[in-house]
Amino acid sequence: MTKGTRGRYTLEFKQEAVRLVESGQTMAAAARSLGVVEQTLGNWIKLHRAGRLKGVSGKHQVTAEQMEISRLRAELARVTMERDILGKSDGILCKGAEVKYAFIQRHKRTWPIRVQCRVLA
């Protein structure tokens, strides 16, 4: 979804998202792979457990293509960030841990530390 718009998802999509988490996938990973916010997924899980999970019907319904586009945009943003980190790192992958830590410290306001650690590991 674009920033500022509210996604409206079908009941089947929400149930599939809940099933991913209940099958052992972490909430963060499931939300990332589906292109939804982790808080939204958490709300769906709570509603599902309470038996009140509902879908949307009518003209505001999100199509499968729109959901796929949203997921692909999120993946593109993640991959672009990883590429930028590697491009800026100037070959520190071959250097010691102290150099990597210094790089992460210098760029902690540019990219999330968790992402930098994953890319530079």
In short:
The chain has helices spanning 11-22, 27-34, 38-50, 64-88, 97-106, 113-120. With 121 residues, the protein is mainly α. It is elongated, with a radius of gyration of 18 Å.
Write the layout of secondary structure elements.
Layout: H1 11-22, H2 27-34, H3 38-50, H4 64-88, H5 97-106, H6 113-120
Explain this structure to me?
- This protein has helices at 11-22, 27-34, 38-50, 64-88, 97-106, 113-120.
- By secondary structure, it is mainly alpha-helical.
- It has two domains: 1-75, Orthogonal Bundle (Arc Repressor Mutant, subunit A); 89-121, no CATH class.
Instruction: Indicate how many domains the architecture comprises.
Output: 2
CATH architecture of the largest domain: Orthogonal Bundle
CATH class of the largest domain: Mainly Alpha
Mass-distribution shape? elongated
Instruction: Please estimate the helix content.
Output: 55-70%
Structure classification: mainly alpha
Uncertain stretches:
none
Query: How do the helices and strands follow one another from N- to C-terminus?
Result: HHHHHH
The whole-angstrom Rg is 18 Å
User: Strand tally, please?
Assistant: 0
> Which fold name is given in CATH as the topology of the largest domain?
Arc Repressor Mutant, subunit A
